[in-house]
Amino acid sequence: MSNEPPDSVTLVVLHGADLPPGRERFEGVPGVGPVRYATADVLADALPGAHALFVWDLFSEAVTAAWSKADALRWVHAATAGVDNLMFPALVGSDVVVTNSRGVFDEPIAEYVLGAVLAFAKDLPTTLDLQRRRVWRHRETERVGGRHALVVGTGPIGRAIARRLAAVGMSVEGAGRTARRADPDFGTVVAAERLPTGPATAEPAADSFAAALGRADYVVLAAPLTDDTRGLADAALLARMRPTARLVNVGRGQLVVERDLVAALRAGRLAGAALDVFETEPLAEDSPLWELPGVLVSPHMSGDVVGWRDELVELFADNLRRFADGRELRNVVDKRRGYVSGS
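That's the Hydroxyacid dehydrogenase sequence above. Prediction below.
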């Protein structure tokens, strides 16, 4: 993208039922001309002549359908960390810059993961159930300190998770695009890969993804959704986990093959799962995940804390000022990979 800004930036805001709060923070940016607000059904009418698009309708696929009308677009900003809904071929192959909302969700999601680990270790779901039934039943629980976690996804969210878990005495390693040692947050990072189906015929190498899965008491999925990661947590991956281990997914629902997860849980090949994201959302009422023992279900809310919408708007407003001034944008995404540059 050229650093030379338009004389007057025309901005389109794609929204759903709710408009962004504090809109005056970007409506009043010098050099920004008309702001057009559009829902998915009229986005194609709003895009002609627009230079910037703010995708506030968080997981909308509307940009794909309306893309042919984006005749002057130079920048798209997503009010999300994941941008898989924007990585369609026409946008990826264009000169349009994509930025995301990295940084807003990192620490809240890390706190959620820590909360899930503590809930499992201290058996809090059973405690609450017994309390509701007025049942006094003494139990022993697990230690958190000394347990081992494998965080799949070594971007900013994965790193925040690693730091939180290490702070309570857990050992942590990462799985990412490339293997490396002496990482400041993970120590060791193994190369994540799709594992072959069928029974294992040999002991995996110690520095392999398969071996790292077998070491983990908790496997945390925090990777972006790409062609390489879609369906990564399938029967082969789950078979490599310990029967006493738990899976935590705060990435994207499509990272997990849910039928394989259900089968592993039902067969006792996995101790539990904390799931904040699902293949289809909302989770269907007849999904067995609602009632399977050892499963925690939350409605895609791990990063949504009080004030998160205001933080999203402030980040976008800062980037809009940069765009209008011709300065470098924050959180530029590598469109070919779906990652933020430098992560």
